[in-house]
Design goal:
The protein has helices at 4-15, 21-37, 41-126, 130-134. The chain is mostly helical and 135 residues long. Keywords: Coiled coil, Nucleus.
């Protein structure tokens, strides 16, 4: 004997997304059996109409499920595209950061050279120029 949890799990798996497909199929089978055993033509016709109605409900549910499935596939593709765009943006940002670091190092080097040049220029200004020294 199965536990109630297993029975519920099995029913949910058979029922799909909970749209009542399992119940509709059982109803269709019962309607078919009633239609086969119907005595009068009027009773048979009403059973036939019920079967058509149940079939159209099943087809509608299946169509809806397929549309949702297609939508989910398109959304997955869309998310993959967004993911790739984000990856590319991150790679571009890393390149830009790397380039900026190089520019900062170059600017630091230039600043250091200018400071050294200014210090040398001040020292040189304290001494007389070559022309006066030769005099």
């Amino acid at each position: 004997p199965s536990s109630p949890d297993e029975v519920i799990r099995k029913r949910l798996l058979i029922d799909g997304d909970g749209a009542g497909d399992d119940r509709r199929i059982n109803l269709l089978v019962k309607s078919f059996i009633k239609w086969c055993n119907s005595g009068s033509q009027e009773e048979g016709y009403s059973q036939y109409q019920r079967m058509l109605s149940t079939l159209s409900q099943c087809e509608f549910s299946m169509g809806k499920t397929l549309l949702v499935y297609d939508m989910n596939l398109r959304e997955m593709e869309n998310y993959e595209k967004i993911y790739k765009d984000i990856e590319n943006s991150i790679a571009a940002a890393h390149e830009k950061i790397s380039e900026c670091k190089k520019q900062i190092l170059q600017a630091k080097r230039i600043r250091k050279n200018r400071q050294e040049y200014d210090a040398l220029a001040k020292v040189i200004q304290h001494h007389p120029d070559r022309h006066e020294t030769l005099k």
